[in-house]
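Hi support team,

I submitted a single chain yesterday and got back a structure, but I'm not sure I'm reading the token output correctly. Could someone confirm the output below corresponds to the sequence I sent? I've pasted both exactly as they appear in my results page.

Thanks,
R.
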Amino acid sequence: MPAPWFMFATGIENSYPTINNGRTRVDEMEKCGHYKHWRTDFELLKDLDIHFLRYGPPIHKTWLGPARYDWEFSDLTFGSLKETDVVPVVDLCHFGVPDWVGDFQNLDFPGLFAEYARAFAQRFPWVQLYTPVNEMFICATFSALYGWWNEELASDRAFVTALKHIVKANVLAMAAILDVRPDAIFVQSESSEYFHAEEPKAIGPAELRNARRFLSLDLNYGYQVASKMYEYLMDNGMTREEYHFFLRHSPLRHHCIMGNDYYVTNEHRVAADGRTWGSGDVFGYDEITRQYFDRYKLPVMHTETNMNEGPNGDEAVNWLWKQWANVLRVRNTGVPIVGFTWYSLTDQVDWDTALREDNGNVNPLGLYDLDRNIRAVGRAYKDLIRAWGDVLPAQSVCLNVPVVLPSETDEPFARRRRDWMRRYHERGHQHHAGNILEDVEA
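Hi R., thanks for writing in. Yes, this is the structure output for that exact sequence:
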């Protein structure tokens, strides 16, 4: 296994938003054949020598109602991961909710989701790494600002409502999981964005978007937002008490790794009238990640990237090289970066329309195609892991990520650490933890 303090990872896409006014569920695990080929998919991890997997149960098939769960598929898949000592980074909510919950405008969602997160942690107590809600900013934007998914609304008020519910759900889920697994670590995968002004008259709209891009992580980490964003939140339905909820629970950030997702589509040009379109990678992962690190001062992981294989067949390989060069640049400038992810293991379907259309288009983005044949980028990633896995320590061996392998869960050192973390919460954060648990129960 590569040095445990740098996490080479991939993912198995488990998006499941609804479109067509809730009539169509876009289930990527179904479209990509994972329900049928999950055993093969896990075997592919061995071939790549990958030990970290972004993965989660399909929420709409698992969470059947309040305190009602169907764990059959999860028992099989997570049981297999445990047997093979693969460390899952568990996505509990990936762009959608069960039909009975409705959508992200539902004010009961955060508390209900915290119960689901607790139930999962109790079912699988050996799981340590979590992304409770994946890409909170993108989920709220596509669902409630662009009108593409789920509630299919397109207004600032709907966006703020979705965002505050999504982030509150993430915060309460972290607290619930920590109550079960006190040494849990949260890898908060979030899209890292930047908006470039096309002309002087576009500076204002670009500045607004560059402030708004931080909102999900500002709230999640209890970072006080800028005055313009505070007014934006208040003008669009957030109350002072709701805002202070996030500030009150800022100590949870000490359990967090800031996951930055970066694609060629993450940078945008902005017109004077507010229209945006892709700019390509002008700054790149290095510069934009340092902007986020300077704001939150948390360890970093590159949690998503990919590229179409392309007509020449080497576009994805070249993009992998570029992203890895950016990771090394981030590391060499003193940012504590702890992992890298090519997302995902196999090709995806309908990513070319951001899952808002059900066309069945296969997008050649994976390390393997949907017949489970390795792509050129899969071979390149395998070579990269082999070359760098044993020679890329963290900036300090004293500051590595305290990952406990599934096979080590019951070892004395792991038990001692969990006991110590539990006492730490009870002793040093007793008042704070009480506030969190009251919010979960409320």
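A quick pointer for reading it: Residues 7-441 form a domain with the TIM Barrel fold (CATH 3.20.20.80). Let us know if anything else looks off.

Best,
Support desk
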